[in-house]
Amino acid sequence: MDLNSLRQFLAVARLEHLSRAAEELRVAQPSLSRTVARLEKELGTPLFDRAGRLRLNDAGRLFRDYAERSLGELEAGRRAVAELAGEGFGSVRLASETFLTFTGPLAAYKRAHPDIEVELHQAPATDMARRLLTQEVDLCAASQPIPTDGLESVQLLDEPVWLVTPPGHPLAGRSSVTVPELAGEGFIAAQPGHWQRRLLDRLFAAHDLAPRIVCEGDELSAIAALIQAGLGVGLVPDLARRLAPPGAAAWITVDSPECRRRLTLHWGSGTRLTAAARLMRTTISEWDWSAGPPR
């Protein structure tokens, strides 16, 4: 049982698809199939159900958890030795759904520690717990709940999320609006999985409704601009309101206690963070989030 076999198994376990895993790993699919088969023979039990679509079974899920922790510990050891040998602070790896929120603390961190290498990984919240447990990254920031078994966290920000409309919109003069009143509106929204989209879907689902999406994309910085252009309405966090030009759009309270964004920083429980990662955690957690992003 070698490290390469474990890494290949974890890719197949995550994707539950041999050809996609082979493409990601850049290996031939028959070779990947043989690796998984050898691993199953060595363990004495199948790790996947193969009736129809490939599915990780109970034994596979159990072994996946041990494999992730093992590879994570080896990576932590490698980085700890590299940090010691280099007599420096090392590097830090931060994952987030978006980095627009973090321009302030990241700039301050780099000014204070110019010799530290900073790696930024844009990632969906659904993949963050795995990346932390396998120590692919040191820190993750998410604006939606993620599985927290084996993780520690600190909440950075709890802010309202507004309904934003063009200035001439019929709702523009309102101070608040209910979700059912928005049933016929065309929404400019993020892709499924992003926290803003999940919030939108969750708000409507609470009323047995579904939002009408007229624009769906991953250019989050363009959402406000498209709203201002009159192409639809959308949900935008309070942090962005502080940067918006006066009068460019109307900001309306959504009458729901759930229409909020809770930004949280996560790291592995018991993980030996590098000095660089500890400094990054301190910078982000102690940042004055009430000041908003820099202009």
3D architecture notes:
- Helices cover 39% and strands 22% of the residues.
- The model has no long low-confidence stretch (mean pLDDT 87).
- The protein is globular.
- The longest helix is centred in the N-terminal third of the chain and has 29 residues.
- Strands 3, 4, 5, 6, 7, 10, 11 and 12 form an eight-stranded mixed sheet that branches. A two-stranded antiparallel sheet has the order 1-2. The protein has a two-stranded parallel ribbon with strand order 8-9.
- Helix 5 links the parallel strand 3 and strand 4.
- The chain contains ten helices and twelve strands.
- Helix 1 crosses helix 2, helix 1 packs across helix 3 and helix 1 packs across helix 4.
- It has 295 residues and is α/β, with parallel strands linked by helices.
Write a compact overview of the structure shown:
By secondary structure, the chain is of the alpha/beta class. It is built from ten helices and twelve strands. The longest helix is centred in the first third of the chain and has 29 residues.
